[in-house]
Design goal:
- This protein is an alpha/beta fold.
- It has 2 domains: 8-243, TIM Barrel, CATH 3.20.20.70; 253-330, Four Helix Bundle (Hemerythrin (Met), subunit A), CATH 1.20.120.
- The protein has 16 helices and 8 strands.
- It has helices at residues 19-28, 41-46, 70-82, 97-101, 112-125, 144-156, 176-179, 187-196, 211-217, 228-232, 236-243, 253-269, 274-278, 291-301, 308-320, 327-330, and strands at 8-10, 33-40, 61-66, 87-92, 130-134, 161-165, 202-205, 223-226.
- The chain has an 8-stranded parallel beta barrel, surrounded by 5 helices.
- The radius of gyration is 20 Å and the shape is globular.
Length: 331
């Protein structure tokens, strides 16, 4: 198979994979590629805040762009390279009404020439990889022929890597959440696409939850992208790190929690709230004894907390306690 430096990645997830989430995830897996939430070209070029901000510790990190104007996409790609991003990715997968109204996301599968023009324009102004994340089809247009018409165009434009979410998207009638669950997974179609484009690195995404599944997919494609499972059960990232043969992998969840204290305090000193960070840590003890108590403590105390050490150490102690009850947190 063609070379690609990242065997695993965490999917871009709106409202979830912000810079605080990515910092936390990086502590768990040193080499897994992390994606930003989708950021629109309009937000980057005309927004009042810095939508490209990230922590240097997040590398390798990819910016996912939402847009369909080649000139704007190229400007944002150039900015991404200037800011040090390792990759810039085009969103052709999001099916939400808001995204469709902005003429980007999954609806762009019906406009392969437009996406190809974006790829070409972005590659003209950058040296970092320009990649595309897409579905297998949209609405009734979900044949291999339809998919290959889209992929042929972006491959011809010089796309550096493709990520295929192994489902089609319904542009009307289903919510974004339903679009992640109802359309059936078709991994075999991703495998066939890889055979058609052997020289283009390919990643598979959709419904993947275990290390065993990851290893299975890696026999067909270069890389595997994990979505919701990586967020809800973040300790899975330490297992993904073994695939990348990372030299430093945390062995204790408690140590990772304590490592986050300085970062949370720094965010508070900068005018932020502890909850902006700790909300991403609720799943750290998923499936472990006391995991529910950890979530309860952070959910109740986190929104008003202004002392990171007291919050994290309190949550760890509450998790370990045998007699303490939830009522004690609210009394």
């Amino acid at each position: 198979m063609s070379s690609y430096p990242y065997k695993t990645s965490v999917a871009p997830m709106l409202d979830w994979t912000d810079r605080h989430c990515r910092y936390f995830h990086r502590l768990l897996s040193p080499q897994t590629l992390l994606y930003t939430e989708m950021v629109t070209t309009g937000a980057i070029l005309f927004g009042q805040q810095d939508f490209l901000a990230y922590n240097e510790a997040e590398h390798p990190v990819a910016l996912q762009l939402g847009g369909s104007d080649p000139e704007a996409m190229a400007r944002c790609a150039a900015l991404a390279q200037q800011r040090g991003y390792d990759e810039v990715n085009i969103n052709v997968g999001c099916p939400s009404d808001r995204v469709q109204n902005g003429s980007f996301g999954a609806c762009l599968m019906a406009q392969p020439e437009t996406v190809a023009e974006c790829v070409a324009a972005m590659k003209q102004v950058t040296d970092i990889p320009v990649t595309v994340k897409t579905r297998l089809g949209i609405d009734e247009q979900d044949s291999d022929e339809f998919l290959y018409r889209f992929l042929d165009a972006v491959v011809a434009a010089g796309v550096d890597q493709l990520t295929l979410h192994a489902r089609k998207a319904w542009l009307s009638g289903l919510s974004p959440k339903q679009n992640r669950e109802i359309p059936p997974l078709q991994y075999d179609r991703v495998y066939r696409a890889k055979q058609r484009y052997p020289s283009v690195p390919m990643s598979i995404n959709g419904g993947i939850t275990t290390l065993t599944e990851v290893y299975h997919h890696l026999t067909y494609v270069e890389s595997v992208m994990i979505g919701r499972e990586a967020y809800q059960n973040p300790w899975l990232l330490t297992e993904l790190a073994t695939i990348d043969e990372a030299s430093t992998i945390p062995s204790h969840r408690e140590a990772v929690a304590v490592q986050m204290i300085d970062y949370i305090d720094q965010h508070i000193r900068g005018g932020g709230r502890a909850w902006h960070v700790v909300r991403h840590m609720l799943g750290l003890f998923q499936g472990q004894p006391g995991g529910k108590k950890w979530r309860q403590y952070l959910s109740i105390k986190g929104p008003k907390a202004d002392d990171a050490r007291a919050l994290i150490e309190g949550a760890l102690a509450f998790r370990e306690s045998r007699e303490t009850k939830l009522a004690d947190l609210t009394s």
